[in-house]
Every structure is written in C-alpha cells, then in structure tokens.
Amino acid sequence: MRSRSIRPVIIDLFAGVGGMSLGAARAGFDVxxxxxxxxxxxxxxxxxxxxxxxxxxxxxxxxxxxLLDAGGIRLGELDGLIGGxxxxxFSDMGKRVVQDERNSLFAHFFRLVAELRPRFxxxxxxxxxxxxxxxxxxxxxLSRVPRGYVLLEPGEISADRLGAPTTRSRVFFVGYDxxxxxxxxxxxxxxxxxxxxxxxxxxxxGLPRIRSDWQREEQGWREVKQLPEGNAFYERATNATPRGxxxxxxxxxxxxxxxxxxxxxxxHSIEVVRRFDAVRPGQSDRVSGANRLAEDGFCPxxxxxxxxxxxxxQSLRPIHHKSPRVxxxxxxxxxxxxxxxxxxxxxxxxxxxxxxxxxxxIVAEAVLSYIRSKL
Length: 375
Description:
Blueprint: E1 9-13, H1 19-26, E2 30-35, H2 39-48, E3 53-55, H3 64-71, E4 80-83, H4 104-116, E5 120-125, H5 135-142, E6 150-151, E7 155-158, E8 169-176, H6 186-190, H7 200-203, E9 222-223, H8 232-238, H9 248-257, E10 259-260, H10 270-278, H11 329-336, H12 348-356, H13 361-372
Parallel strand pairs: 1-2, 1-4, 2-3, 4-5
Antiparallel strand pairs: 5-8, 6-8, 7-8, 9-10
Helix pairs in contact: 1-13, 3-4, 4-5, 11-12
C-alpha cells in the first residue's frame, strides 16, 4: 500500500506549456508525465517542470499501457488524469467546424480514462463545447467513461471569480471512482465561491516600462519592483513554487536580482501609436480591432493564434491600459495568472500561443485542490 507521504500522481494530456500542470503541482500533486505533441510547447513545459517525464506523443495513437510503462506506474495506481484537449473546433470564436479533426481528441481523453482507470479525471475546454452543435461529439466521448465512475454534470468557471485578472471562462468535465475517493460535491466544486477580484492595474503592478527596441530574448529580462506583501495574487506571482517545479535559472534571477523574462517590446508605426493613444479603456481600435485594457477592469480572453500548420498567425493582443502599445508576453502571463518565474518560449509569437492556449493556473489549482481534499 502506498505511503500517505507520497504525493498523488497525475498524468497531464495535451499539457501545452503547463497551466493545468502548475495548478496540479500547487494543489499537491506529482506531475509524473506530460504528453504534448507540439515539440516547442513540450520543451517550454520541460523548462518549468524538470522533474516531469515529457512525451511528445500523439494522444490519438498512444495506449494507456504505454503511458503507464513510461511512468513506471502500475494499473490502478494512477491518481488522476488531467488535460485540455484542443478547443479550436469547439470555440465560438473560430469557424465552429464540427468536423474539425482536432475534435476527436476529446474522445481520446476519455478512451485513456477507460484504459488507465485513474481515481479521478479532469478535462477542460471552451464554453462552446456545450453548444448544441457539439452535443453528439461530447455524448459519444463521455460514453467511454467506465461503468462505476461518477460523472459530474460539466461546470463552467470564469477565472475572475477565483482571483485571476481575466474573464476567461472554461468548462470542466470531472469524474471519479467512488470506491477510491470521497464524494465530490458539484455545488462545492463549481458553485459561487469567490475570491477578492484582481484588476488589470493591480495584476501588472511592478512590471517595467517597455521599450519598443527590446526585441531579443536577453533584452526581455528586466528588473521588476518588489510587490506588497499580504496579497494572495502577488504571493502566487512571485513565490508558491512547488517542489521540483521551476527553472533554476529563472528562480535564481528573480530571487537574487529581481529579474523576470518576457518583457519584449513591439515596434509600432507612429500612426498606430497615435491611434492606440486615442483608444479609451474598454474600447477597440477602429482599424486593428485591438481592445484597450481598463486599469480597473479585467482582461478579456487572450487568444492563442495559430501554429505553423495553419499559417502561424499572431492573435490580436490587447492594448496596454497606460501605454499606446500592445502588451508583452510577461504582462499576458500575469493577466493569465502565471507567476513571474514561469518561463515561455523566447519569441513573442510562441509565448502568446502558449499563454493563450493555457487554462489559468489559478483556476486549475482551485479545482484540483478541492479534488485533492477528496482523496
């Protein structure tokens, strides 16, 4: 029988850069494996989770046995399976293509639930997955959940409710084996629990004034001001580093020199700067459509853009609330709820893709902390 002192083990599918993984680690889980087909995202995940085994495998082709063997886990010993299957085909913002081949990956998550038999599972996706057009896909996927598991009605959580400075919403599909866990109360998991709201201005406090010529990776490492103590958001922005998580280099530079990465500028033309300067908070630029952040409001959902297989298009970034420019990767990370020591790709394009594709780690931690209490 496993010792109580050992952290419960999870596998993160479609791990991306690690929003769910960070939430799980902060909730007290051992992120044993991270499966991510995109080698760029997987490499960034590895920087932040050096103790995790990284597998650049295609989830649609992998078997549960292969995952267990790779992690040295016996059947029945896996505590949790978590992940965020690709959401582009389900999103209300996209083309809403029900036949999008990426939609089938949602079903493969639940196929692996059946093969791995974890104590619980958590899959997250965009609210659009619950639209009528996707009903058959979701129903077929959930039919793979083994008999005997309790499958909760999916619940939607807006990140601003849980203390993240963004209105980004995600839907969570949660199930568990009642023979190996205490009852999970849906109302307690998805109910109206709230934390003190964190605004854009509060979230971006202490970050440096950005110069447009800060373009190279090393130029993005800049000193940040020390944040006030006694604030839960600031504590998570600078500390709360789980065991075995974090780049040693990034942690050292933050703790010894107060430096953080990703403070990269964007070169705008004089005309664009003038237009951005005229946009009022909460309004959009008439040409680009970029929304200007409101200092006392929340950040809207940050979008990811596309990968090389779909043209490598940069998604629209919001305009800073004080300066006539788009936000930096580090500012986007703060708004999504990532800590300053968390590392993203050295380029702006891939950094924004990684941040935009991630669930807020603040939300993931809240969901998984509750589930952890039921083990």
